[in-house]
Amino acid sequence: MSNYIGLIHKEPDSDYGVSFPDFPGLITAAPTLDEARQMAEEALAFHVEGMIADGDAIPEPSTLECIMAERSNKDGVAVLVSLKTSAAKAVRINITLPEDVLQTVDAYAEARGLSRSGFLARAAIHEIERETVG
């Protein structure tokens, strides 16, 4: 299990945001610090699983010193986020969706720093858990 640096950001009247310098564009947010840390762990796992499914290389974790040397990172509070990915092998599938639904999925996933595969896996798990819990 790897640990990556997440940077927590908080503006007045906003949620706690978490970004990952090793994964540009991967950002998550939540109303409380505890929820932000939990969301960061989930977002990182889904993002990496999507990268694996897409055949992308996973970067090695940067050191704290390297990350904090970047001027743009100085305003963030660094936290270690454990990468917990499922041991299951990713399987490529072929699905058909209406074009407008696919565009909505892609826009939503991109805005949250997720791949299409990562978002669809997350959405499926969320729906299954909602059905089984509720």
TrEMBL record:
Superkingdom as given in the UniProt entry: Bacteria
Stretches assigned to the HicB-like antitoxin of toxin-antitoxin system domain: 4-124
Gene3D superfamilies associated with the record: 3.30.160.250, Met repressor-like
Pfam families per UniProt: HicB_lk_antitox
Protein name as it appears in the record: Type II toxin-antitoxin system HicB family antitoxin
Organism expressing this protein natively: Neorhizobium turbinariae
Origin organism lineage: Bacteria, Pseudomonadati, Pseudomonadota, Alphaproteobacteria, Hyphomicrobiales
